Amino acid sequence: MLNTLFAMAVLLEVQIASQPHISSPLGVLTVLCGVGAFFFLLEGWTKWRLFNYFPPLIFIYAVPAIMSNTGLLANDSAVYGWLSSTVLPMFLVIMLLRVDIASTVRMMGRGIFVMLFGTAGVVLGAPIAYLLIRDKLPESLDAWKAFGSLAASWIGGTGNMAAVAEGLKTSGQAFGLAVLGDNLVYMVWLPMLLWSRNLHRVFNRFTRVDEKRIAMLESAQIRSVPDQKQIKARHFLYLLALGLACTWLAGTISGKVPEIKPVLTTSTWKILLVTTMGLALSLTPARRIPASHELAMALVYIFVANMGAKADVSGLTASAAWFLLACYIWIIVHGAFCVLGAYLLRVDIHSTAIASAANIGGAASAPVVAAHHNEKLVPASILMALIGYAIGNYGAFIAAWLCYWLSRSNM
Fold first, then answer.
1. CA distances from 394 to 121, 153, 224 (A)
2. CB–CB of 388/354 below 8 Å?
3. Is the dihedral of CA 260, 296, 157, 136 positive or negative?
4. Where are the beta strands (DSSP E) in 165-255?
5. Measured between alpha carbons, how far is 246 from 89 in angstroms, rounded to an integer?
6. Closest-CA residue to 382 (of 96, 56, 99, 155)
7. Measuring CA to CA, how many Å separate 79 from each of 18, 25, 84, 241, 310?
8. In this structure, what is the dihedral angle of CA atoms 121, 124, 129, 134, given to the nearest 10 degrees?
9. 3-class SS at 75?
């Protein structure tokens, strides 16, 4: 009898231990929001240099991943599905409202086409890098999805990476590799873009740039700074209504569009549709609604925490080194395309560095690089980064498809 009771007690203890401590939808959502808020608060309060090398994004992904893999947080909550089906497409629409393609082309001129060369370098660099290391990664990982997700970040930004990862149904492990590669390459690439200012004479001679171009940029961009409106409660209602309406409409339409697996699934169609709707709305007065970017980015970080909470990180270490090697090869291809574009179009080093930063670092990094090269180019750099948001999802799905094709070939 005692042995039986002891066995039952042990079994009960194991069952209790296997139960996540935080499993209610409200509790899970509180943790996801709390983790994001905590690390941004910590960054602003402490001013630690650590965050210059490891931005809050890494911790916002990693902490929920640790919590769910150690049993502290549920990894199958209903909240995760709601964030994927509703919040993600909603923030994508809101994020794209501020895109102003016409103003960017007018201000940056040929510089915008250098950015498009850089985008082509990301799209084509993905299959090149994948081909070199595909045999080193486990087939079960579906590494092509990690490459597609990272391509979205390197063309647009974190929001695009989250959107494409959802469209491809990227596993938490593959998404973790994308987050890791994104940040570790950024740590090396950003200083190089800043340092490139020292090469302006040599680079400008190489690309045969006309010095009058820089003067034109400086005089044009000053007039581009938009007026800031006071944010009111109704603005958030406008943004939420637009985001939810587009999400609902895209979900309805995507369910009726034929799938072309594995890339163009119903989920992918939904992401592409909301992207197109967001761009269409950016041509209307909706683009002048204040706080759209700030609200969208807050939702982006909640979704990144959501991706971390769903991740199985047990096999992440074994694949990380090879994936990182591929990422560094990939970024070299991107850089070569940027230089090629600058040479063909006779563009200066300042615009070229900003174009690369607008791709790889997005709206967070492009102004930093612009301020270092020429402070008067900061507004233009922000607009250029927004162009990346606009084209990021389309380019990333192409990159993913190329990598998938290679994963099925016998070359």
1. 14, 12, 27
2. no
3. negative
4. none
5. 8
6. 99
7. 20, 6, 9, 21, 11
8. 160
9. coil
377, two tokens: 């180019």
Average pLDDT over residues 268-290: 91
Alpha carbon distance 113, 106 (integer Å)? 12
Structure tokens at 387: 């162009």
With H, G, I as helix, E, B as strand and everything else as coil, classify residue 10.
helix
Question: According to the model, what pLDDT value does residue 3 have?
Answer: 40
CB 23 within 8 Å of CB 74: yes
Which of 155, 190, 115 is CA-nearest to residue 342? 115
Which pLDDT score, from 0 to 100, does residue 7 have?
40
Per-residue pLDDT for 15 more than 70?
no
The structure's pTM equals 0.78
DSSP string computed for 108-171 = HTTHHHHHHHHHHHHHHHHHHHHHHHGGGS-GGG-HHHHHHHHHHHHHT-HHHHHHHHHHHT--
pLDDT in tens, 47-66: 888 887 777 888 898 899 88
Integer angstrom CA distances of residue 314 from 138, 150, 161, 364? 13, 20, 22, 31
In 10 A of CB 408, how many CB atoms? 8
* CB contact set of 375 (below 8 Å; sequence gap of 6+): none
pLDDT tens digits, one per residue of 361-399:
887 788 878 878 877 777 778 778 888 888 999 999 999
Q: Which residues of 187-207 are buried (b: 16+ CB within 10 A; e: fewer)?
A: eebbeebbebeeebeebbeeb
Q: Give the up-direction half-sphere exposure of residue 312: CA atoms within 13 A in the CB hemisphere.
A: 7
Residue type (1 letter), 261? K
pLDDT digits (tens, 9 = 90+) for 65-81: 889 888 899 878 889 98
Q: What is the structure's pLDDT at 217?
A: 56
